[in-house]
């Protein structure tokens, strides 16, 4: 009977929770399991009873289910969630590997049971069918030889019962297996698997070993010296591997690669026993190095999920020579926290702070995290980019359903939607923290979990209150010998013979606009605030001396100093605002008299710098008020002044808009512009009411005549000024 969705979810949660028991073993158990690994993997003498029991429980939850009308081999009820208990890492790994192998060959194993007439059997209840299938795979893998019984292990009655039943029928079972191989024309059962599965296993077995150097225990130079003493040779890349060789990673300066054939030898070396070298997938090293490149000397890091304790330890090692702390969320229990502390202490980590709350339960204003600068978010994902699913489940406490998804080659739509929604929620929550950047990393091959999650989060606009918005930036690594691989807004590696699949994205807050201001602008602002002190005074004195030499009697104050407008040119924005307000008032009054006629424009290419407190540029102002006798001399003085100011200040073009004027007494001359003057903010610094005629009366022919006369006078002055200052 198919399981309900709630039961399925409950099973996966129990499997995930029970895999965390691995961290509850003592450090001595870790060393002992590493020492036993070589002997156990070479000889196929069977497993402990507890391994068979746990493997059967895992297989029961991930097996392929068929409709009732096509179900020839019946399994027990799935409503009861299994409880998994592992003694150490070795037994846990063996349990998952045995369950995964039974899943891969489920069709074949069921066919062997039916073809040999061993199944169905009245003495074997449906609740033990999963155990029957798991132990059948192990029996044929041992070439139907008897299992070696260990004296120290505690016997399990169900295991001994199924073992006796299968061994007594071993001849029938071997004959049925031979017929199946002939039927499928397969030299071994491996050739019965689909081509995609066989290629995936070949890639996983040939994948180079990726290790990172624990700088709490040693250094890169010491490791290289030790490897040289052991007979290892450094090569340029994995393509140059030849037995005892290694190479450096192009993105991470503390990551090394070794040939996969040296796995057992390396795991039993003193470098691994002393935690100087630690084996972990490269994708996690890329994530922590991307965080490292974004941090300064004292910024803290938030690791949103415990995940693998190796990821946390690597992040801690990279921050070894700083005052930073690494906050780890989601520890949940004090027992889990104690075991993590033991593991971290054994690796030498000292700057790690454990938080019991889940990441989404922590408030962005939590006082413990106020110095955090970067968040590392590695959410739960479909993980189909991982080469070895067993390694992922063990290291990341992943979902055992990954084994089934890997065989099917895809993830169900419901599961993918649920994962993407959870990832988006966590990323949006991370954006509420007052941090500088967020590093988002998955091992998924689906855009729904990668690019689309990041884009949706950026479009949501959930940034913290009064904080700069986040934007996507290319990931940066401290070491990158191949710059081409570091370009683009997303970093990804495809699943191949040399690497697992990985997706990496970095979002950072937009920089303050002040960071884009030129050096001159920063110095000017500092001088305006009196922050430069004697430096500013010395610069001002030098400018005043030069101004006195070239500008005798032309717009310099009585004390011989330059006006403050010239000292701090950044005040032009305020003057421009005042100018715009003054002009708008005058033009509004004049336009009340307008009739719908075309408006002409006069553009001044190189206007002179305006004088402070005037409504028009200084030349226009003084020209309008020159006496008749002194016009010639005044014009010469103004011309010299204009040339000097043109050298001193970079001028911008100004546009004059002249509104039309109609009068029965004054008729515009042909070719003469029929509009009054208007300056936009790119022209005059500030304007004054003295530059334009006073408000005109609104009634009577006399008033209209005066208004026209004044308008024509302004037009003549504007035209004369334009002709005089046209660029040569």
TrEMBL record:
Residues 562-571 have a biased composition (Basic and acidic residues). Gene3D superfamilies: Sun protein, domain 3, Vaccinia Virus protein VP39. S-adenosyl-L-methionine binds at residue 358. The keyword Cytoplasm does not apply. One of its GO terms (biological process) is methylation. Keywords: Methyltransferase, RNA-binding, S-adenosyl-L-methionine, Transferase. The keyword Methyltransferase applies. Residues 540-571, 689-709 are annotated as: Disordered. GO terms for molecular function: methyltransferase activity; RNA binding. Transmembrane segments: none annotated. PROSITE patterns: SAM_MT_RSMB_NOP. Residues 199-510 form the SAM-dependent MTase RsmB/NOP-type domain. Belongs to the class I-like SAM-binding methyltransferase superfamily. RsmB/NOP family. This is NOP2/Sun RNA methyltransferase family member 7. The lineage of its organism: Eukaryota, Metazoa, Chordata, Craniata, Vertebrata.
């Amino acid at each position: 009977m198919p399981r309900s969705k709630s039961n399925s979810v409950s099973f996966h949660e129990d499997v995930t929770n029970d895999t965390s028991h691995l961290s509850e073993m003592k450090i001595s158990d870790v060393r002992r399991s590493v020492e036993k690994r070589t002997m156990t993997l070479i000889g196929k003498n069977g497993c402990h009873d507890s391994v068979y029991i746990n493997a059967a429980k895992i297989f029961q939850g991930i097996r392929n289910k068929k409709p009732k009308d096509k179900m020839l081999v019946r399994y027990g009820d799935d409503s009861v969630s299994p409880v998994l208990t592992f003694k150490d890492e070795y037994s846990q790994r063996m349990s998952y590997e045995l369950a995964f192998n039974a899943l891969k060959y489920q069709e074949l194993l069921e066919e062997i049971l039916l073809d040999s007439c061993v199944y169905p059997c009245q003495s074997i209840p449906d609740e033990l069918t999963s155990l029957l299938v798991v132990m059948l795979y192990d029996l044929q893998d041992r070439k139907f030889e008897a299992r070696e019984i260990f004296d120290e292990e505690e016997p399990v009655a169900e295991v001994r019962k199924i073992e006796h039943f299968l061994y007594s029928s071993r001849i029938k079972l071997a004959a049925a297996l031979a017929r199946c191989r002939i039927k499928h024309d397969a030299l071994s059962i491996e050739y019965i698997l689909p081509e995609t599965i066989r290629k995936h296993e070949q890639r996983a077995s040939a994948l180079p070993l990726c290790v990172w150097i624990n700088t709490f225990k040693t250094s890169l130079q010491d490791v290289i010296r030790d490897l040289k003493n052991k007979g290892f040779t450094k090569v340029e890349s994995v393509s140059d591997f030849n037995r005892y060789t290694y190479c450096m990673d192009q993105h991470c300066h503390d990551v090394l690669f070794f040939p996969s054939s040296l796995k057992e030898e390396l795991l039993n070396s003193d470098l691994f026993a002393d935690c100087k070298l630690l084996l972990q997938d490269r994708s996690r090293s890329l994530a922590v190095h991307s965080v490292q490149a974004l941090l300064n000397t004292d910024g803290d890091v938030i690791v949103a999920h415990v995940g693998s304790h190796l990821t946390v330890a690597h992040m801690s090692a990279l921050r070894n020579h700083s005052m930073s702390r690494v906050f780890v969320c989601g520890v949940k229990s004090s027992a889990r926290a104690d075991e993590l502390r033991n593991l971290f202490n054994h690796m030498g980590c000292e700057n790690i702070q454990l938080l019991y709350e889940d990441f989404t339960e922590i408030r962005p204003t939590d006082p413990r995290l106020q110095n955090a600068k970067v968040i590392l978010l590695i959410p739960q994902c479909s993980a189909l980019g991982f080469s070895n699913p067993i390694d992922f489940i063990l290291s990341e406490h992943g979902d055992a359903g990954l084994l089934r998804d890997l065989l099917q080659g895809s993830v169900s739509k419901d599961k993918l939607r649920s994962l993407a929604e959870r990832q988006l929620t966590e990323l949006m929550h991370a954006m509420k923290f007052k941090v500088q950047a967020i590093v988002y990393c998955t091992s998924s091959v689906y855009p729904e979990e990668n690019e689309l999650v990041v884009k949706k989060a950026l479009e949501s606009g959930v940034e913290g209150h009064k904080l700069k918005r986040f934007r996507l930036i290319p990931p940066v690594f401290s070491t990158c010998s191949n710059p081409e691989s570091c370009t683009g807004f997303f970093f990804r590696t495809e699943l191949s013979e040399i690497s697992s699949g990985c997706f990496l994205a970095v979002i950072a807050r937009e920089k303050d606009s002040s960071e884009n201001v030129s050096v001159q602008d920063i110095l000017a602002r500092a001088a305006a605030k009196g922050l430069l002190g004697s430096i500013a005074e010395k610069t001002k004195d030098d400018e005043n001396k030069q101004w006195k030499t070239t500008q005798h009697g032309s717009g310099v104050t009585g004390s011989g100093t330059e006006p403050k407008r010239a000292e701090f040119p950044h005040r032009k924005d305020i003057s421009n605002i005042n100018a715009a307000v003054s002009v708008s008032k005058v033009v509004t009054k004049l336009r009340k008299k307008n009739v719908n006629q075309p408006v002409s424009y006069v553009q001044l290419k190189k206007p002179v710098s305006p004088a402070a407190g005037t409504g028009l540029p200084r030349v226009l102002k003084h020209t309008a008020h020159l006496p008749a006798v002194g016009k010639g001399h005044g014009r010469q003085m103004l011309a010299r002044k204009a040339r000097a100011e043109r050298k001193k200040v970079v001028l911008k073009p100004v546009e004059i808009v002249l509104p039309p004027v109609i009068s029965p007494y004054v008729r515009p001359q042909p070719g003469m512009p029929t509009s009054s003057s208007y300056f936009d903010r790119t022209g005059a610094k500030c304007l004054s009411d003295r530059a334009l005629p006073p408000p005109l009366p609104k009634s009577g022919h006399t008033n209209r005549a005066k208004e026209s006369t004044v308008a024509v006078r302004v037009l003549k002055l504007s035209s004369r000024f334009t002709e005089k200052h046209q660029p040569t």
